[in-house]
Design brief:
Strand content: over 45%
Shape: elongated
Largest sheet: 12 strands, antiparallel
Number of strands: 12
């Protein structure tokens, strides 16, 4: 389970800054095959992961007498090596690098987003892409590059309630380095995510999604949702 705390600050109509910090609550059990025998291993920990700092630049916004969500922009920033990399289980065994809350690397973040009101009354849509590429290696480990593409539709069902539907896709390359396990890392996934939102007031809005796996393919043996 991941809990992400985020904060955003607007610098004007076209620029904004953001920061986020994930907290991983991880319980993991597996069997280690060793010289013809099996050794059960498990980890359970809650720890902060790698923080992100980003800037968003709006490149286009619809101009007219009526309010509109039509806009396009770019996102850029860094994932910082703030997360822990030394989590061990009760027997003192260090968890594999892909299981650690932090990667130890600084990653470049580049993205773009687009939103538009659709011709049908009450309908709108969006699309966004985000690329994440590590800039360095840390302690013999370099995480694989990531790319995500999200597209979605929104239908206003009244003054407060809206129905939503998203398609979320992610691709990740294999990890690299002497401490990596390239044969058991990397893959791709596609999720269909129906959801809804409700405006409690002008300042507060709640939303929820359920992610349903449509397609998943991973290299080797991995834990997936």
């Amino acid at each position: 389970r991941n809990t992400v705390v985020s904060i955003d600050h607007s610098l004007g109509p076209d620029w904004s800054l953001g920061a986020s910090l994930p907290v991983a609550d991880r319980s993991h059990d597996h069997v280690h095959n060793h010289r013809g025998g099996t050794i059960p291993e498990s980890w359970s920990f809650t720890a902060a992961g790698d923080a992100r700092v980003t800037a968003r630049r709006r490149l286009y916004a619809s101009e007219g007498p009526e309010p509109s969500i039509d806009s396009a922009g770019i996102t850029f920033g860094l994932k910082l090596p703030t997360g822990r990399r030394d989590e061990r289980n009760g027997g003192g065994t260090l968890a594999e690098r892909p299981l650690q809350p932090g990667t130890g690397t600084t990653d470049l973040l580049l993205g773009a987003q687009f939103a538009r009101a659709l011709p049908a009354d009450g309908w709108s849509g969006f699309a966004q892409v985000l690329l994440q590429a590590p800039l360095n290696e840390r302690d013999g480990y370099r995480p694989g590059r990531r790319a995500s593409l999200d597209v979605g539709l929104r239908r206003e069902m009244g003054d407060r309630f809206s129905a939503m539907l998203q398609l979320n896709s992610t691709w990740r390359a294999r990890d690299a380095g002497v401490q990596a396990e390239p044969e058991d890392t990397g893959g791709r996934s596609i999720f269909l995510s129906p959801g809804a939102s409700y405006a409690f007031s002008r300042e507060w809005q709640g939303y929820a999604f359920v992610q349903l796996p449509v397609h998943q393919r991973v290299n080797g043996v991995q834990l997936v949702a």
